Amino acid sequence: MSAPEGAPRRSPIERVFAVWDRAERLLVGLLGAAALMIAVVQVFGRYVDPAGAINWAEEVIVYVAVWAVMLIASQLVRTDGHVRPDLALRLLPPKGQRWLEMVNCLVAIAFTGGMVWYGWRVVSTALLLDQRSSSDLQFPMWIYYAALPTGGALMLVRYVIRLVRYAFLFDPATMTVGHAVRQKVPGDDLAIPAPE
Question: Is 87 contained in some domain?
Fold first, then answer.
């Protein structure tokens, strides 16, 4: 499938990022759908056929939800959805915002690096001890614990990409916070008046 006429062509790296974004969102959507289906089956079993109800549904729903949250955290990095010093950023000029964002990225890289390191230690310990859940399912806990280093690694890569963009590809027109002045919209009494 080719790009529409007049549309700018994406670079190979942009295509890789687009596939990565779609894959994360698709996987999280599938995990959410799986959790919903397990919940429906469990509720149906509990009220319609109590003898055939599954007793491990809540456990699996938690595992699936944790994996989904850890995977989608990478998307939050990409879309500026994580906690960051927005109030301080709005008070700074674009150059100051750039430097504060880079410091924020460095702190986040250190934190997510710690998540990966600690998460891997937890996973390796669970593997070594052959830890399993206490339910009838006997789910291998290392799979559940692997959500932490996986999510941390995805966020770590996103923060490194973000740091590189702020360090070498900074564009004040598109990469600053709070410097666009809203125009008055009819019916919006809270709008900031535009400068004349």
Answer: yes
The span from the CA of 186 to the CA of 164, in Å, is: 41
Domain that holds residue 110: 12-168
- Is residue 180 situated within a structural domain? no
Look up residue 107 and give its two tokens: 């702190």
The pLDDT of residue 180 is above 50: no
CA–CA distance, 116 with 88 (Å, rounded to integer):
29
Instruction: Give me the DSSP letters along 65-117.
Output: HHHHHHHHHHHHHHTT-S---HHHHHHS-HHHHHHHHHHHHHHHHHHHHHHHH
Rounded Cα distance between 40 and 117, Å, is 36
Say how far apart CA 174 and CA 80 lie, in whole Å.
13
Q: Taking the CB of residue 79, how many other CB atoms lie within 10 A of it?
A: 10
Q: What is the pLDDT of residues 47-84, one digit of tens each?
A: 888 877 788 889 999 999 999 999 999 999 988 887 77
**Which tokens is 151 given?**
């999510």
